[in-house]
Write a structure and sequence with these properties.
The complex is a heterodimer of chains A (about 325) and B (about 525). With about 325 residues, chain A is mostly helical. In chain A, helix 5 packs antiparallel against helix 6, helix 5 runs parallel beside helix 14 and helix 8 crosses helix 10. Chain A contains 15 helices and no strands. With about 525 residues, chain B is of the alpha+beta class. Helices cover about 25% and strands about 25% of the residues of chain B. In chain B, the strands form four sheets. In chain B, strands 1, 2, 3, 10, 11, 12, 13, 14, 15, 16, 17, 18 and 19 form a 13-stranded mixed beta sheet that branches. A four-stranded antiparallel beta sheet of chain B has the order 6-7-9-8, covered by helices on one side. In chain B, helix 8 runs antiparallel to helix 10, helix 13 packs antiparallel against helix 15 and helix 15 runs antiparallel to helix 16. At the A-B interface, helix 2, helix 5, helix 8 and helix 13 of A face helix 1, helix 6 and helix 12 of B.
Chain lengths: ~325, ~525
């Protein structure tokens, strides 16, 4: 089975998941106590406006046909109208997507840049002093609440030493690179300990394997041995761990974006909740769910690229 | 309108009250350390960044109720009269003077000469007529403010006549409301919807961009009618919902104004060098409302007993960290005709017990206070009330509901007690008085079903009484009557908190909440 077939099969398997997500998101609007139209219109509700909204949302139809209507609109890229701003919810979501994608990718890259060298250092002297330090110190990052860590980083790098802006997401590629560093580092520091531990453990496993002994006997040692032979074989469990944690991270961006005032999807989600903008909340939930699904797919594809056995065993 | 339940508070995040009338006048600081005046030393240039708690909703000044929109479009569009800095009167703005007909039903305004819109076209009486007509027609918005207006005519290019249905005391105050701000006739050939995507006005700033959910920017209007103003090249409002982040942005120099720092941080900000902590007098008043349709709150003695039992000074300390004052009247001190002599029912446990003894429930009862979830101040107040009402034998249960449901329950009188508040939109008590005490207004007496015919009559008489002393007497009746009836317990008055960097000068907020960015400048 080739790589494309594998990816295609994984995509097919995602369809039921996606359907489940749409059902959940669809029913969100029905979780609002009372009549959602009346609730949303609040003090300005008149029988006419309520009826109008019912019709607009199809709330006066049977539930199942409402769901079909929702799916139909969804497939046409229509998530409805933002109740707060009055404009299209899709364009609002699209304009908030780039900062969140930046945050996720940037923090994943930083997490890898932090984890790989540290895991190698730790694994190179099992139970030695540097191993103990590498295993213990990053746990502080894991234990600290992200918003607290964020404020410490802001205080140190933005207020004391003006190296980075306090918050926001800057303009232009380099502006983003600079502004998004602290938020991404905050996330990466929480992500790194888990990755380091799993990478270290699997490196130690690999170090005991026969092919490493063979490699050593052929005179390969040091950095070359680690990078070419150990890391490549040890990285798969770490990719799994990273993949799962980035999934959690998508939820976590809500907090980080709030602290760093980044105009991303998390911020949009919170504001929309406060503004009773249910259509946007629905839309963002859907986008978050799709992101998690795609991320899982990306992790699967990454295994397949790293380890040919994955492609053939399924 | 300006009332919001605590429910709505949660929604608009940190107390973004629906508020204010037009703009306040000249610049000076009220309490707190002064950020300097515009006189002398003012320099031109710079972009000022205001970090605010929430985003705007729309720029349509005739329909939008949220402050975060109002405070911005007030920099773009201006009314004929504007609120004075003390919030108690109006001063000429796009009009310079007026005359009144002998029957007091026609006001003729002379327009200011040389006023141009930000597109360079001169403002004429046709624009004024169009604007006020649009405001009056805004049935879903602020149209009710203009109910006394029969029609508007434009006798000449620089005069406008407003014809009333009956003599109407609050007319100038009504015309100073932002909903009556002047826009080009027929929206300059655009549809209403197109126009408000990038509105045009006579104000100190004009439209640049709005990235919804993140930032809104206005730039200097070169045609502004006040010579030499505005000082700033541009003003950007950024959305920073986190209190901590706004404070850090201020300290890190990324923002120059922090809108509404948390009360708990006010004293530390006062002590921070490079930061000016301003507490501007406001018209915000917080109330405990009783539903008179729910037993036993129809009994005046029960309401009076509870009102006597509340230690308002303790609430100010716990909720506002001391940055406020106990309330004595339905009206706050910054409202015209406020009566300081109305003592209200202040904390007095003996009097509270005496009232309880006279009531239908002398041994106490069990009741609930409706609080919307996610708003910690309301929960603090409810918890304090729980212990303060115990000595009266009242067992108070806290009912926490999501903001939407709490709001609906309040409006449909499905509650026993709840917390609510008001801020003024116009520099005249009429809007508040009608909303609060008239059971036949849409608000059913602030959603309490309170009905005291004497108070209601005085409220409506005051609308058509044109002499100051006579109006004062009527509003004294409204204030003392509503205090004695304790239809709501008046809790406290709180200021508007704005922290700025010390490079900001001339930033001043009127008691109605509006500010004039044309007076603000940044020192290098």
């Amino acid at each position: 089975m080739g790589r494309m077939t594998f990816v295609f099969r994984r995509l097919l398997q995602l369809i039921p998941v996606a359907i489940g997500v749409t059902i959940l998101v669809f029913f969100m609007i029905h979780l609002i106590p009372g009549d959602p139209a009346r609730t949303i219109l609040g003090i300005h509700a008149t029988p006419r406006t309520v009826a109008l909204l019912h019709q607009q949302w199809g709330l006066n139809r049977p539930l199942i046909s409402q769901y079909w209507l929702f799916l139909d609109r969804l497939l046409h890229g229509n998530l409805g109208v933002s109740l707060y701003y009055g404009g299209s919810a899709v364009s609002l979501i699209i304009s908030h997507l780039p900062p969140t994608l930046w945050l996720i990718i940037y923090s994943s890259v930083l997490a890898v840049l932090i984890s790989v060298p540290l895991a190698m250092i730790a694994a190179s002297r099992k139970d030695g002093a540097r191993d103990q330090v590498v295993r213990a110190v990053p746990l502080i990052g894991l234990g600290m609440p992200p918003f607290w860590l964020a404020f410490l980083l802001i205080y140190a790098f933005a207020i004391k030493f003006h190296m980075f802006p306090v918050s926001g997401w800057g303009s232009g590629f380099f502006g983003h690179l600079r502004s998004m560093f602290l938020p991404s580092l905050t996330v990466a520091l929480a992500l790194a300990p888990v990755v380091i531990r799993s990478l270290r453990a699997s490196m130690l496993n690999v170090l005991g394997a026969e092919f490493v002994t063979t490699a050593r006997s052929k005179g390969i040692a040091g950095r070359r041995l680690f990078l070419r032979h150990v890391l490549r074989n040890a990285v798969i469990p770490a990719v799994t761990v990273l993949g799962i944690n980035i999934g959690f991270l998508i939820g976590g961006t809500v907090i980080i974006e709030n602290v760093f005032a980044i105009p991303g999807l998390g911020q949009l989600m919170i504001n929309s909740i406060f503004q009773r903008d249910f259509t946007v909340v629905q839309g963002v939930t859907l986008v978050f769910a799709i992101m998690v699904i795609l991320l899982n797919l990306a992790a699967d594809v990454a295994y397949a690229s790293l380890d040919p056995r994955v492609r053939f065993s399924r | 309108m300006t009332y919001r339940t605590t429910a709505a508070q949660a929604l608009i995040a940190v107390g973004a009250l629906t508020v204010l009338a037009a703009c306040g006048g000249s610049s000076s600081s009220s309490s707190g350390s002064s950020s300097g005046s515009t006189a002398g030393g003012a320099v031109h240039g710079g972009n000022l960044v205001i970090a605010r708690t929430a985003d705007s909703q729309s720029m349509n000044n005739t329909t939008v109720f949220d402050n975060e929109s109002i405070w911005i479009f007030e920099q773009i569009m201006q009314p004929l009269y504007t609120v004075t800095p003390n919030g108690k009167g109006v001063m000429p703005w796009l009009a310079t003077s007026y005359t009144v007909s002998p029957d007091k039903k026609t006001y003729t305004f002379t327009l200011r000469k040389g006023v141009k819109f930000s597109n360079g076209k001169p403002m004429t009486s046709a624009d004024v007529k169009f604007s006020i007509d649009q405001a009056s027609a805004a049935a879903k918005g602020w149209g009710y403010i203009n109910t006394a207006i029969k029609s508007v005519s434009a006798p000449s290019a620089d005069t406008v006549a407003v014809h009333l249905k009956y003599p109407w005391a609050p007319l100038l105050a009504d015309l100073s409301l932002f909903s009556n701000a002047i826009v080009p006739a027929n929206y300059g050939g655009q549809t209403e919807n197109q126009f408000y995507q990038h509105p045009i006005g006579t104000g100190p700033f004009k439209w640049d961009y709005w990235h919804k959910g993140s930032a809104l920017k206005l730039v200097r209007n070169p045609y502004f009618w006040q010579k030499g103003k505005p000082y700033l090249d541009s003003v950007t409002w950024t959305n920073v919902p986190s209190d901590n982040t706004r404070e850090l942005q201020l300290k890190g120099g990324q923002a120059q104004v922090d809108e509404f720092p948390a009360w708990s941080t006010v004293s530390s900000l006062k002590a921070t060098s490079g930061v000016t902590m301003n507490l501007f007098n406001s018209t915000r008043t917080d109330y405990l409302a009783f539903n008179e349709k729910a037993k036993p709150f129809g009994d005046v003695h029960v309401r009076r007993a509870i009102s006597f039992a509340i230690n308002r000074a303790a609430l100010v300390k716990a909720v506002l960290f001391g940055n406020g004052h106990p309330a004595n009247s339905l009206f706050p001190p910054q409202v015209p005709y406020y009566q300081p002599a109305t003592k209200g029912l202040q904390y007095n446990l003996a009097a509270a017990k005496a009232e309880m003894a006279k009531s239908s429930v002398p041994h106490g009862f069990t009741t609930t206070i409706l609080v919307s979830s996610g708003f910690s101040d309301s929960l603090t107040i409810a918890t304090i009330l729980q212990s303060e009402l115990k000595p009266l034998g009242i067992t108070l249960k806290i009912q926490t509901l999501d903001p939407n449901t709490a709001n609906l329950n309040q409006q449909s009188l499905k509650y026993d007690m709840t917390l609510t508040y008001w801020t003024m939109d116009i520099p005249d008590p009429d809007e508040l008085a009608t909303f609060a005490v008239d059971p036949n207004s849409g608000a059913k007496s602030f959603f309490t079903a309170y009905n005291n015919p004497t108070v209601v009559k005085a409220t409506h008489q005051a609308e058509q009484t044109l002499t100051t002393t006579a109006r004062q007497a009527l509003y004294n009746t409204v204030q003392s009557g509503s205090a004695a009836d304790a239809f709501m317990a008046f809790l406290y008055y709180s200021p508007y908190a704005y922290a700025t960097t010390s490079s900001v000068h001339g930033f001043f907020v009127t008691p109605l909440g509006n500010y004039h960015m044309e007076n603000v400048w940044l020192s290098k």
